[in-house]
Design a protein that fits this description.
The chain has 376 residues and is an alpha+beta fold. The chain has two domains: 217 residues, MetI-like (MetI-like fold, Orthogonal Bundle); 91 residues, no CATH class. It has a four-stranded antiparallel beta sheet with strand order 1-2-3-6, with no helix packed on it. It has a two-stranded antiparallel sheet with strand order 4-5. It is elongated. A hairpin with a 3-residue loop joins strand 4 and strand 5. Helix 2 crosses helix 4 and helix 4 packs parallel to helix 7. It has 13 helices and six strands. 55% of the residues lie in helices and 14% in strands.
């Protein structure tokens, strides 16, 4: 007679493995301002990438009749000639008169004129992503001869909304390119300083202190004065990025040095040395990944500083110049009293700078807090 059949043992399921990346993400998404900053930063860069498509007009299209035209509000519900209700975006026309006492143009809303806003109209030709020729835009006026200035016009009758969108391409890319170059310099020199120490550390730190002691504005003025006035705008863009990178790597190098000093005597670094790994492999294959989240946070916080530096240089006339379009170049239009008094919409690029800087600062703060997922 056989005994009772033993119960089949169920396989043991251990606890789920949580990776460091998952811990960082879980902590980051609890930071509401950081998530908002991430969404806004992503929207800014996607908008910059598709700026010519999103802009209803080309950056140099103008209507001389509507210089300093005010913003036109968008309406959605109207009646046609037969009294039927029509739902769709449109703007009213503008009537222009001249105030001979002040010599200024006076704009009044002409409610008898309706300019429907249509989607995917043909307009100014451009190269999407630099190599796809097209003339389609996301939206625009049904009649291209009628004004449609959602955020007003500048002194030549050019649409400020379109120019601000297109200016984002240069201003935001200066931050990315400049920080990428600063990241390379900061990792190399900071890593060498912290890994070797001694005379190497002393020499690099004295160079860093010398660069940090130079006043930024006089240095920018001197370097900008050294650039010939007839230099191609693309080369000026390259020079400005190079200048900002040469100045901006010192802070990251100090952070990297401190981390290397604390890690160079750790067991995993000694094990790599005993295994025959060279200094460069130890630094960039073993040491840098151990604090990569801190580097990402520092880089994210450095991008707004690059954007502000480019904007300040261009605003002062020391950086990018026409025909290049950046937020700093656009803000040059707002340097006179008339702009402040009668055309405050010319400060729209300044608002874009504020939004971009705040978004990236929120994102950087969230990354910095999430870098140590085990802290309270």
């Amino acid at each position: 007679m056989s005994g009772p059949t033993p119960a089949t043992a169920s396989p043991h399921s251990g606890p789920a493995v949580v990776t460091p990346a998952h811990l960082v993400w879980r902590r980051f998404r609890r930071h509401r301002l950081a998530m908002l900053g991430a969404v806004m930063t992503l929207a800014l860069y996607v908008g910059a990438a598709f700026a010519p498509f999103l802009a209803p007009f080309g950056p140099n299209e103008y209507q001389a009749t509507y210089t300093y035209a005010p913003p036109q509000p968008v309406h959605w519900l109207r009646s046609d000639e037969d009294g039927r209700r029509i739902f769709g975006p449109y703007v009213h026309g503008l009537s222009v008169s001249v105030d001979y006492d002040s010599g200024r143009r006076v704009f009044e809303t002409d409610e008898t004129t309706v300019t429907p806003i249509v989607f995917f109209p043909r307009g100014a030709e451009y190269d999407l992503f630099g190599f796809i020729p097209t003339d389609r835009h996301l939206f625009g006026p049904a009649d291209p001869d009628q004004p449609m200035f959602l955020t007003g016009a500048d002194r030549l009758g050019r649409d400020m909304f379109s120019r601000t969108l297109i200016g984002a391409q240069v201003s935001l890319s200066v931050g990315l390119v400049g920080v990428a170059a600063s990241l390379v310099l900061g990792l190399i020199f900071g890593g060498l300083s912290g890994y070797y120490g001694g005379a190497t550390d002393t020499l690099i730190q004295r160079v860093i202190e010398f660069l940090q002691s130079i006043p930024s504005i006089p240095l920018w003025i001197g370097l900008a004065a050294a650039l010939p006035k007839d230099v191609d705008p693309v080369l000026i863009y390259f020079y400005i990025t190079l200048i900002l990178s040469l100045i901006g790597w010192t802070g990251l190098a100090r952070v990297v040095r401190g981390r290397f000093l604390s890690l160079r005597n750790e067991d995993f670094v000694r094990a790599a040395r005993l295994d025959g790994a060279g200094p460069w492999r130890i630094m960039f294959r073993h040491m840098v990944p151990s604090f990569l989240s801190h580097v990402i946070a520092a880089v994210t916080l450095a991008i707004p500083a690059m954007i502000l530096a480019e904007t300040a240089l261009s605003f002062l006339g020391l950086g990018l110049r026409q025909p290049v379009i950046s937020w700093g170049v656009l803000l040059q239009e707002a340097q006179n009293i008339r702009s402040v008094a009668t055309a405050p919409w010319l400060f729209l690029p300044g608002l874009a700078v504020v939004v971009a800087v705040l978004s990236m600062n929120f994102l950087g703060d969230g990354l910095r807090d999430a870098a140590d997922p085990f802290s309270s």
